[in-house]
Specification:
The protein is built from 16 helices and 20 strands. It is an alpha+beta fold. It binds one RNA strand through helix 1, strand 1, strand 2, strand 3 and strand 6.
RNA sequence: GAUUCUGUAGCUCAGCUGGUAGAGCAAUACACUUUUAAUGUAUGGGCCCUGGGUUCGAGUCCCAGCAGGAUCACCA
């Protein structure tokens, strides 16, 4: 990567050389023992001042206010920011040599550098909690200038870096300069930890299943394809892990779960990234009613653990995650929003309805897809508060058990929140003969031109033939859940490194040649 | 994939109906030993995304490309 250096970058390299000339290692190897964090000081100093008389603190310099023979600087560690006060006569007690302050601190240290200090905590005249530094040590020299975002007393940010390309490509900088971004990702981890604790406390077993699959099953999507050289076979990155988790239920685990990184070779937008995370869990001897109850409890707990309340503000709306959530069947929902009862209709009737509603349809669409289109266009966006949509037509759910009383339906629900699908769950189909027929239906759909139909996994059928207990299963979109819980409008803001087209100047063509 | 908007200093942005670049922050120099968007004075810093075209002359107009955003389509 060959690139012209800017004026400021040239200058910092010069400073680096001068530091070395003074015998200062700009990248020292030895441990710098830290005994306090910024947040610790803020939380506990007033209560227990004696503990902050002899502290060692390290962080990145985010700002310097030079006052001549003394200076204030703002240091940022992993927890927060803390002002430090540094005086020439403390740093350089001997009368004849003020190099360390006048040259090293004032000339050779920049915003963005990482330093460690020793000192004591005090409060300034104007009341700001600070560390009075008695010594400092350079721990890492920054060669690129950091874009500085200044914030006033009211929290207004000035010159905030908002360019999405800059923020996503150089997330490390985004995290340094935008504290809110860091908070979002801490919240994401809190959400995942809450889910994991909830499941583990319930006796669930976390498992790992293959990411590389020879049959990309369990969902309908275009997979990423790769090739295994030693076996000389094509392999696919998984689009779902459902069929593997069900094999484990056959194997005798009663409750398994996995945070599954899935890969789908499809479009990207505000709610889609080529790789994304779905939590799936499967529980033996349960049905989809039990799963609705459990899902409500889980989401209520996530909101509470994260915000201390079940009310979560998302954009213009305040969502209530207090259980129970509203439940309505897909046919009742369509009736409610269009006034039409499509529950008894055949394909021709559904096509008429679509025409009346001015919905775009084509010849390859079967009964299920038509119903899905009607629901998607007229109902889905209306469900702002968490709502379970239940009892889907059998044709659009090839892995779901037939409804216990309703002909032509399956025991399935989707959880809609803020107009988007967040979770999808079934009473799992465990009848191996029925499952085989459903797969064969999918083949027919494929032949009709539906490029989204499922592949058949014969080993999965074999597993079912050994007997799978009645099971309830669910998939919850973790990225979308995080978007809701952290009030982020784009999936890229809840993924640390969202997929992007590579920058051409960072591709190592020199190495390839 | 389609439509549309954006791309100017390290960062945030100005730049009119075409006349060879501006501000704030950051940087450099000097002053200042409790400041806080520190302050004051001075200074430096630009393949104006890339390549074509129109024109005496293009940051500005036209075409193509690259990158990103938004909307739509597909999908979770």
């Amino acid at each position: 990567m060959l690139q012209e250096l800017s004026e400021q970058e040239e200058l910092r390299r010069t400073k680096l050389a001068e530091l070395k000339k003074l015998g200062i290692d700009p990248y020292p190897a030895e441990e710098f023992k830290v005994n306090v964090t910024a947040q610790d000081i803020k939380d506990n100093y007033e209560r227990d001042k004696l503990n902050y008389k002899d502290i060692r603190f390290a962080g990145r310099i985010m700002g310097i206010r030079d006052m001549g023979k003394a200076a204030f600087a703002v240091l940022q560690d992993s927890t927060s920011r803390m002002q430090i006060y540094i005086r020439r006569d403390d740093i350089c007690p001997q009368e004849d040599d003020k190099t360390l302050y006048d040259v090293v601190w004032k000339k050779l240290i920049d915003i963005g550098d990482i330093v460690g200090i020793e000192g004591y905590v005090f409060t300034t005249k104007v009341g700001e909690l600070s560390i009075h530094a008695t010594s400092f040590k350079l721990l890492s020299k920054a060669l690129k200038p950091l874009p500085i975002v200044k914030t006033d007393a009211d929290g207004n940010a000035f010159d905030e870096v908002t360019d999405p390309e800059f923020r996503y490509r150089q997330r490390y900088v985004d995290l340094i300069i935008n504290p809110k971004v860091k908070k979002t990702f801490e919240q994401r981890t809190t959400i995942i930890n809450t889910i994991r604790a909830f499941l583990n406390d319930s006796g669930a077993l976390e498992v790992d299943t293959p990411v590389l699959q020879s049959i990309p099953g369990g969902a309908t999507a275009r997979p990423f394809m790769t090739h295994h050289n030693a076996l000389d076979i094509p392999l696919y990155l998984r689009i779902a892990n459902e069929l593997y988790l069900k094999r484990l239920i056959v194997g005798g685990f009663d409750w398994v779960y996995e945070f599954s990184r899935n890969f789908r070779n499809e479009g990207m937008d505000r709610t889609h990234n080529p790789e994304f995370t779905i939590l799936e869990f499967y529980v033996a001897y349960k049905d989809y009613f039990w799963m609705m109850n459990t899902t409500e409890k889980l989401l209520e707990k996530i909101a509470n653990d994260l915000h201390g309340t079940t009310d979560v503000v998302v954009g213009e709306n305040t969502l209530s995650f207090a259980a129970p959530f509203k439940r309505i069947s897909i046919f009742d929902s369509i009736k409610e929003h269009t006034g039409m009862d499509v529950s008894k209709m055949e394909e021709a009737g559904l096509r008429e309805v679509c025409k009346t509603l001015h919905l775009e349809i084509d010849e390859t669409m079967g009964k299920a897809k038509l119903i899905d289109t009607i629901f998607g266009e007229t109902c889905e966006g209306k469900y702002i508060q968490p709502t379970f949509i239940t009892d889907y037509p059998v044709e659009m759910s090839p892995l779901t058990k037939k409804h216990r009383t309703e002909e032509g339906l399956v025991e399935r629900f989707e959880l809609m929140i803020n107009g988007k699908e967040i979770a999808n769950a079934y009473s799992e189909l465990n009848d191996p003969i029925d499952q085989r027929e459903r797969f064969e239906e999918q083949i027919k759909l494929m032949e009709r031109g539906d490029d989204e139909a499922m592949f058949i996994d014969y080993d999965f059928l074999r597993a079912l033939e050994y007997g799978m207990p009645p099971t309830a299963g669910i998939g919850i979109g973790i990225d979308r859940l995080c978007m809701l819980m952290t009030n982020q409008p784009s999936i890229q803001d809840v993924l640390l490194f969202p997929t992007m087209r590579p920058e051409n100047n960072t591709v190592a063509t020199e190495e390839i040649n």
